[in-house]
Protein backbone atom coordinates (compact mmCIF):
# COMPACT_ATOMS: atom_id res chain seq x y z
CA UNK A 1 0.00 0.00 0.00
CA UNK A 2 1.27 3.51 -0.72
CA UNK A 3 0.06 6.97 0.19
CA UNK A 4 -2.05 8.34 -2.65
CA UNK A 5 -2.74 11.91 -1.62
CA UNK A 6 -2.64 14.46 1.14
CA UNK A 7 -4.84 17.55 1.34
CA UNK A 8 -3.70 20.84 2.87
CA UNK A 9 -6.07 23.67 3.69
CA UNK A 10 -4.33 26.94 2.86
CA UNK A 11 -5.28 30.61 2.93
CA UNK A 12 -3.83 31.29 -0.54
CA UNK A 13 -3.90 28.40 -3.01
CA UNK A 14 -2.04 30.29 -5.76
CA UNK A 15 0.84 31.37 -3.53
CA UNK A 16 1.17 27.93 -1.93
CA UNK A 17 1.04 26.25 -5.35
CA UNK A 18 3.70 28.55 -6.80
CA UNK A 19 5.92 28.05 -3.74
CA UNK A 20 5.74 24.25 -3.92
CA UNK A 21 6.29 24.18 -7.67
CA UNK A 22 9.16 26.71 -7.63
CA UNK A 23 11.15 25.39 -4.71
CA UNK A 24 10.24 21.70 -4.47
CA UNK A 25 9.57 20.72 -8.07
CA UNK A 26 5.94 19.65 -7.71
CA UNK A 27 4.01 19.58 -10.98
CA UNK A 28 0.54 20.98 -11.51
CA UNK A 29 -2.03 18.30 -12.22
CA UNK A 30 -5.05 20.60 -12.32
CA UNK A 31 -6.77 23.44 -10.59
CA UNK A 32 -10.19 24.98 -10.11
CA UNK A 33 -9.96 28.74 -10.02
CA UNK A 34 -8.24 30.06 -6.93
CA UNK A 35 -9.81 27.55 -4.55
CA UNK A 36 -8.19 24.20 -5.47
CA UNK A 37 -4.98 22.83 -6.96
CA UNK A 38 -3.62 19.30 -7.34
CA UNK A 39 0.16 18.92 -7.38
CA UNK A 40 2.14 15.76 -8.14
CA UNK A 41 5.58 14.68 -6.99
CA UNK A 42 7.98 12.49 -8.99
CA UNK A 43 6.51 9.33 -7.41
CA UNK A 44 2.89 10.11 -8.30
CA UNK A 45 1.79 11.22 -4.83
CA UNK A 46 -0.81 13.97 -5.04
CA UNK A 47 -0.76 17.00 -2.75
CA UNK A 48 -4.03 18.88 -2.98
CA UNK A 49 -4.46 22.44 -1.80
CA UNK A 50 -7.90 23.73 -0.79
CA UNK A 51 -8.76 27.30 0.10
CA UNK A 52 -9.78 27.97 3.69
CA UNK A 53 -10.53 31.22 5.45
CA UNK A 54 -8.46 30.21 8.46
CA UNK A 55 -5.62 27.72 8.81
CA UNK A 56 -4.88 26.43 12.29
CA UNK A 57 -2.42 23.56 12.11
CA UNK A 58 -0.82 22.38 15.36
CA UNK A 59 2.60 23.91 16.07
CA UNK A 60 4.43 20.68 15.17
CA UNK A 61 2.53 20.04 11.91
CA UNK A 62 4.67 20.18 8.77
CA UNK A 63 5.37 18.51 5.46
CA UNK A 64 8.91 17.48 4.57
CA UNK A 65 11.08 17.39 1.47
CA UNK A 66 14.27 15.36 1.51
CA UNK A 67 17.34 16.59 -0.32
CA UNK A 68 20.19 14.47 -1.65
CA UNK A 69 22.87 16.11 0.50
CA UNK A 70 23.54 18.59 3.28
CA UNK A 71 24.97 20.93 0.65
CA UNK A 72 21.60 20.90 -1.15
CA UNK A 73 19.85 21.70 2.15
CA UNK A 74 22.18 24.68 2.61
CA UNK A 75 21.57 25.83 -0.99
CA UNK A 76 17.79 25.58 -0.50
CA UNK A 77 18.05 27.52 2.76
CA UNK A 78 20.03 30.32 1.12
CA UNK A 79 17.66 30.49 -1.84
CA UNK A 80 14.56 30.71 0.37
CA UNK A 81 16.04 33.30 2.75
CA UNK A 82 17.40 35.36 -0.17
CA UNK A 83 13.88 35.31 -1.62
CA UNK A 84 12.46 36.70 1.64
CA UNK A 85 11.03 33.63 3.34
CA UNK A 86 11.25 33.14 7.10
CA UNK A 87 13.29 30.02 7.88
CA UNK A 88 15.16 28.57 10.83
CA UNK A 89 18.89 28.08 10.34
CA UNK A 90 19.94 24.56 9.30
CA UNK A 91 20.96 22.43 12.24
CA UNK A 92 21.76 18.86 13.15
CA UNK A 93 18.68 17.20 14.67
CA UNK A 94 17.25 13.93 13.33
CA UNK A 95 18.90 15.05 10.06
CA UNK A 96 20.57 18.20 8.68
CA UNK A 97 17.38 20.21 8.64
CA UNK A 98 15.56 23.53 8.69
CA UNK A 99 11.95 24.71 8.65
CA UNK A 100 10.37 27.41 6.49
CA UNK A 101 6.99 29.09 6.75
CA UNK A 102 5.21 28.54 3.44
CA UNK A 103 2.69 30.92 1.90
CA UNK A 104 -0.80 29.77 2.78
CA UNK A 105 -0.21 28.96 6.44
CA UNK A 106 1.79 25.73 6.77
CA UNK A 107 5.37 24.75 7.57
CA UNK A 108 7.83 22.87 5.38
CA UNK A 109 10.85 20.94 6.63
CA UNK A 110 13.88 20.56 4.34
CA UNK A 111 16.34 17.85 5.32
CA UNK A 112 19.11 15.49 4.27
TrEMBL record:
Signal sequence segment: none
PROSITE patterns membership: VOC (PS51819)
Superkingdom per UniProt: Bacteria
Biological classification of the source: Bacteria, Bacillati, Bacillota, Bacilli, Bacillales
Pfam assignment, any one: Glyoxalase
Domain annotation VOC: ranges: 2-112
Gene3D superfamilies in the cross-refs: 2,3-Dihydroxybiphenyl 1,2-Dioxygenase, domain 1
Name of protein: VOC family protein
Amino acid sequence: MKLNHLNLTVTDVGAAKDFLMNYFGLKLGGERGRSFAALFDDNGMVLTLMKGKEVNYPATFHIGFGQESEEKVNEMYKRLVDDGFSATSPERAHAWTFYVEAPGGFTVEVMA
